[in-house]
Amino acid sequence: MADLDLAIRGGTVVTAADVTRCDVGIKDGRIALLAESVTDAPKSLDASGLLVMPGGIDSHVHLAQHAFGARMADGFETGSRSAVAGGTTTVIPFAVQPRGASLRESVVNYHKEADGKSHVDYGFHLIVTDPTASVLGQELPSLVGDGYTSFKVFMTYDDMVLNDRQLLEVFECARRERALVMVHCEGYDAIKFMTERLEAAGKTAPYYHSVSRPQIVEREAAHRAISHAELLDVPIMIVHVSGREAMEQIRWAQQRGMRVYGETCTQYISLTADDLKGLNMDESGGKYVCSPPPRDHSSWEAIWEGITQGVFQTFSSDHCPFFYEGSEGKLNPKARTSFRWVPNGIPGVEVRLPILFSEGVVKGRITLERFVALTSTNHAKMYGLYPKKGSIAVGADADLVLWDPNRTETIRQSIMHHGADYTPWEGYAVTGWPVQTILRGALVYDDGKVMNAPGEGRFLRRKLSPFAMPTGIVRHGAAK
Ligand code: DUC
Ligand code: ZN
Ligand code: ZN
């Protein structure tokens, strides 16, 4: 093939299906050729000793989101810069509908945040906080048609929680429109009750954030969401699962033939609630405040059980970065009065691949193919981006990460590319590291340096997810 633009030579190509020694030929930003040897491209990258994998897709990141009571540490520019440095080439953040606002308008505003800023390709999920008749009847159907084919709903947080009736109405709309609903499963009332009791007892340090939201609160909400989904025969994705309790609910639903999917995240295999204790229960534990909170070592094992048994389809970061210092940071004066006011979320888009590789592949828990499925391919399939994204196949976008499986690194704030002023994984040692990242055939990250300009990432209109198809098994008579 004479007119290739770039060849990647000498690497081991890994997809969700295969591990193959072959070269990759790229033309016009897409993969044009997979062959034992590709020699006739004007430019080439030497991938000998490296793995060549589909660029990461992180289907759960928060950027430039005005939520959780503080300004985020990352907008599109720094958040996507951090993504590309971590080997991720596509992110799907959330356009949030503030209560009382139009969802369409919220999407238009969110595009203004993203336009001209992203280093990676991106789509938007929609967060529905106010499912009025016009949102359900007009806005959501038209937005789904425009490529926003997934919604997130919350079962907690004052400014986002939906009651059961509203959850059912959103689920019904999703079923009708074939959109995939992501559910944040933590029970609002139980958390509020626990928070008030803890505060009354003077237990206000960041560690008590984890006590206020124990696993049973997540399990109860997961079971409730699953029950509503079963009533309507609608597929749902339960996001950021933290431990055994919710994992078992999802497994139970799957074993009953339901289309209930699961996502877990980096923090649930690498952090624990003890991290929230900080130094002698001081405010530094606020650095780890996220929801659901990290649990304990036995929960890590439960999450690995869910990963290896196929309960979880996607492994995401839930990148939701806040500053530690400063008036809007996790240490702000109000946050010092109670864990309840510490902004919920941690930065992690850049370390997702290294930590899963190190803990999963290097420690023999998962294969290389499964690593690719969990970090890229399944995200593309679940959220309507496949086969353009998430694979190394002729015709797919040439989004790749060249990965050194033997390189050891210690995660430090000084080597991160995000906008936050700390990393929760300071000092965490990993084996396996991204060396180069390629976005649609262009070298966009080269060993520590981000090479492309903000704005070179493109917006992705997503197709309907085949995973959002109802089963057709109506057990309870309410689905239409
Ligand atoms: N839920 C998220 O999905 N991200 C950050 C905080 C939260 O509660
Ligand atoms: Zn959430
Ligand atoms: Zn999130």
Percent helix among the residues?
25-40%
Low-confidence stretches: none
Radius of gyration: 21 Å
Report the CATH topology name of the domain at 56-370.
TIM Barrel
**Widest beta sheet: strand line-up:** 3-2-7-18-19-20-21
Mean pLDDT: 97
Helix/strand/pairing class, anyone?
alpha/beta
Overall 3D shape? globular
Characterize the main sheet: 7 strands, mixed
Ligand kinds:
dihydropyrimidine-2,4(1H,3H)-dione, zinc ion
For the record, what CATH class of the domain at 56-370 applies?
Answer: Alpha Beta
Query: How many helices does DSSP assign?
Result: 12
Q: Which homologous superfamily in CATH is the superfamily of the domain at 56-370?
A: Metal-dependent hydrolases
What's this, in brief?
This protein has 480 residues and is an alpha/beta fold. Helix content is 29%, strand content 21%.
Describe this entry's structure for a reader.
- The chain is of the alpha/beta class and 480 residues long.
- It has a domain of 315 residues: Metal-dependent hydrolases (TIM Barrel, Alpha-Beta Barrel), CATH 3.20.20.140.
- Helices cover 29% and strands 21% of the residues.
- It has 12 helices and 21 strands.
- It has a 7-stranded mixed β-sheet with strand order 3-2-7-18-19-20-21. A 7-stranded parallel β-sheet has the order 10-12-13-14-15-16-17.
- Strand 8, helix 1 and strand 9 form a beta-alpha-beta unit.
- The longest helix is centred in the middle third of the chain and has 18 residues.
- The mean pLDDT is 97.
- Dihydropyrimidine-2,4(1H,3H)-dione (DUC) binds next to loops.
